Amino acid sequence: MQHVIGVLRWDQETCMPPGAVAERAEQLALLEGQVHELLIAPEIGELIAAGEARTDLDHADRAFLRELRRTHDRETRLPVDLVTAIAHQATVNHASWVAAREASDFGLFRDDLQETLRLTREKADHLGFQDTRYDPLLDDFEPWMSTAELAAVLGALRGPLVDLLERITGAAVTIDDEVLRRGYDVSAQRAFSDRLLAALGFSLHTGRLDVSAHPFSATLGAADGRLTTRFQPNLLSASVFGTIHECGHGLHGLGVAPELATSSLGDGASLGICESQSRFWENLIGRRRAFWEHFYPQLQPRFPALAGVDLDRFYRAINAVKPSFIRVEADEVTYNLHILLRFSLERRMVDGDLQAGDLPDAWREESRALLGIVPERDADGVLQDIHWSMFAIGYFPTYSLGNLYSAQFHAAMARDVPDWEERVRGGRFADILDWLRERIHRHGRVYPAAELCRRVTGEALDARFFIDYLNAKFGELYRL
Amino acid sequence: MQHVIGVLRWDQETCMPPGAVAERAEQLALLEGQVHELLIAPEIGELIAAGEARTDLDHADRAFLRELRRTHDRETRLPVDLVTAIAHQATVNHASWVAAREASDFGLFRDDLQETLRLTREKADHLGFQDTRYDPLLDDFEPWMSTAELAAVLGALRGPLVDLLERITGAAVTIDDEVLRRGYDVSAQRAFSDRLLAALGFSLHTGRLDVSAHPFSATLGAADGRLTTRFQPNLLSASVFGTIHECGHGLHGLGVAPELATSSLGDGASLGICESQSRFWENLIGRRRAFWEHFYPQLQPRFPALAGVDLDRFYRAINAVKPSFIRVEADEVTYNLHILLRFSLERRMVDGDLQAGDLPDAWREESRALLGIVPERDADGVLQDIHWSMFAIGYFPTYSLGNLYSAQFHAAMARDVPDWEERVRGGRFADILDWLRERIHRHGRVYPAAELCRRVTGEALDARFFIDYLNAKFGELYRL
Questions:
Q1: What domains sit in chain B, N to C, each tagged with a CATH number?
Q2: Residues of chain B contacting residue A225, judged by C-beta atoms under 8 Å apart
Q3: Complex ipTM, two decimals?
Q4: How far is A34 from chain B (nearest CA, A)?
Q5: How confident is the model over A202-249, as pLDDT tens digits?
Q6: CA atoms of A10 and A261, how far apart (whole Å)
């Protein structure tokens, strides 16, 4: 059923004619209602309890019960009235958020955000928590992780990132990405994206690449991974790294063991783990010099704009660091500062310490402290992301978790595949992909993220891998 | 639910990666099983009976009950074991039919066809009939029409068609379609198809055009009409008339009144009525000289192959008549002879007078009698169509019904819109489309096909409109 819902959503983003949006919403509501009814059915509750009482189940079956229990309890605890009110408010929000962003006028969204926060707190209260209201919200996206654990691991990022950014902006070396912003033929970008997918091991026998306004990846079946990207005629990096990023998601989804893939253990362990797989390929592999030693000779002849641009200049351009307002355009160093900002603000909003009306000022304050810049327009600040309008509160931190996991996984891979960089340089990615499949992909959601991390890397999630990676890479690039 | 199933099927034909086929079959079986369970639910039967007892229902509600009764009774009468056996045999058939066609060896499909006929007869016996076993099979595709009525109206075609074909093949005038079989750039064909859709009133706000191996049209929502076509680099007419044909289906599906469109009255009255709408545009409008007086000046400059080919030569090429083996490539004169052949053979098979093993000889015999030619290879004869392997027995005649309805509807339209040909010549199709919408499209399935025909044309379906149309058009073309 979830895969069928996935088909409807994928179609909506990539193919559906605009006039069909109202009935598609009804189609989705119908199927999602059916899934909800199945999940909260008393018989399911009894079956879960009967399963939990058994001692003869294997590891995967116990994990299946664990995840079904978690979902059953969550869905059962939410009153139908509240679910309906949230769905209604989300629809209202979409219109007001779009209007507010277009006019760059937060006032048009303020009251809806305040109501969203009220409903979100009510939702958290029904779901229940011991420590903080943020816990059950985070759990929706990063199962089994507490806010305290999250705050500890993300907190370790702040100082080193701010410090690194200061050293970079004060460095004698300057790097810009002007070469990426020239004219790039869209059909040639498409052809290069196809080549990247093939080289990284994403087969069109079990997947495809389409175009959508916001790139995403969706698993519509155990052997049906759909990727999207976007081709901008004046920004080469958008399609190149968008494609590699979504390819990482797609390889993850298609790598789940067949016996798990169509069960509720077929998803990744958490959004943080999922994001680690896209970032692993996009950044830890795809922004390496070795990667472009292989691909740049294939890329350069396709685009007149790259004539005379040598590998070194291209490599620096794709790794230029510069504080900016927009999260999705941020580089590896500043990206997580955008997340720390949002995490801080949404915790305060959930706790009731920050009202919607005070959000724009708080945003500017945090932006100055973390990035050293302040957006003049709300469209470039507090209104830039769709997440809060969709009740995705507790979602942003999983992006940073993905970055941290990706670096920690990469360090483990580098131990197990010592010549990994030579392989990247030669365009041979099969052993790296096999390592990911064997250690991570095939397990689906059998292990909670924390346990998976310990099994893969030998220790708990630790920000130092990511910080060390950034310091080494950008220390060299900027001669710090 | 039917529209959701439509999305899954459309995706399968146009987008889905090949590796996903097994799980997609499971997704479809799940949803189709849900629809079946809903349709046969005893509560539904009770609600239908309660509705039928009421005297205060309006016309549309009574029609809704009539169609629900028909479907409920049909679905309820079929034992689950039989439905399962048919679904299983259809899967087996697909493989053996494909293999048989590829090898042009009917023996590879014979036993499966024999079993298909046995199951089909068993199905007909469960559905029940008074006159002939073919009745309940026909009813699946052409509701409320009896085999006797069908045989009468199609029987009137045979003599005049065979006679017209003999006069054409004996005529001094010869016409061939060589100019259509030159090299035609596929992207220019695509652009011209898009222009055709726009000119005929098919909006991309509520629909789209894709490519598939076998062109089809599917309604995925009240405002979501999906068309497909195919572009062959050496056959211009395939995309041009394929697009117009599917556009006719699409306009029909999108023209249903909103209050009916998402109910079981949202389909066309019957497959014959549906096919009348595609044929109306493809042949009665699209193969007219007036149509190309408007479009040929737009078509010709796009294709070097048409340089020096004047309108008259092009018009004759798209109306060349020649007996051929393959139904889907047949012209307007011979097409229905292909159907008469199949209708005759499938009636005999359903009655038990013709065994699968004797089918190829019977095919050649009928082909000689009707078309004057005999296929040497079974792939060009009895194995060419997928229908029987899919248990679509009783389907073929609806193609001919569509041709007959299209001519009869066209004659009625010509009375109501006297300057219709001038409008076509000027590329102004809105009044013709409005006429179809008002008389046919908006009613969906409210009226059975026979009643709709009387309401639209003032009389029962009669083959003479089609015969008169062919005699007039081809009499002039071939100077008979």
A1: 92-180+261-480 (1.10.1370.30)
A2: 17
A3: 0.92
A4: 11
A5: 999 999 999 998 899 999 999 999 999 999 999 999 999 999 999 999
A6: 19
